[in-house]
Amino acid sequence: MNKSARYTRLYDQLVPLLAKSPSPVSAMATVSAVLFHKMPHYSWCGFYLIQQGELMVGPYQGPVACQILKQHTGVCWASIDQNTVMLVSDVNDFPGHIACDSRTKSELVVPVRNKSGQVVAVFDIDSHETGSFDEDDVTGVVKIIQTIESFFL
Hints:
By secondary structure, the chain is an alpha+beta fold. The protein has a single domain, classed as Beta-Lactamase (2-Layer Sandwich). Helices cover 35% and strands 25% of the residues. Strands 3-2-1-6-5-4 form a six-stranded antiparallel β-sheet, sandwiched between helices. α1 runs antiparallel to α2 and α1 runs parallel beside α4. The chain is globular, with a radius of gyration of 14 Å. The N and C termini lie far apart (36 Å). The mean pLDDT is 94.
């Protein structure tokens, strides 16, 4: 099955699950678990939340994560600072990349916005392979992340 079709199937599975989620934390945990276990090219995925001006780890799947990401460095902060999706084919080519897991070779970060459109978190995905992510990943993940944005006031 190609990635685009897989993301469509996962979106269709997640929508009813997220409708039952009692909180943003439950929704983030569900998205992280489903995507991590269904997308074989993911080595880590999860949320970093902006709290009191810092980027703190939230629900995730995979190896132990960095707990707090230094302000305005790395791919996650670049996504926030530039208010855009960051698709990094080779993290070694990204100035200031933060290596929480030295095996990470590529990364995709999608901003999570509240109802006012303000970035309140990011969804971060890592892979142990260079060039793992493409526009199919971007399109699929953005659509899934939009389903949980209503949880954020």
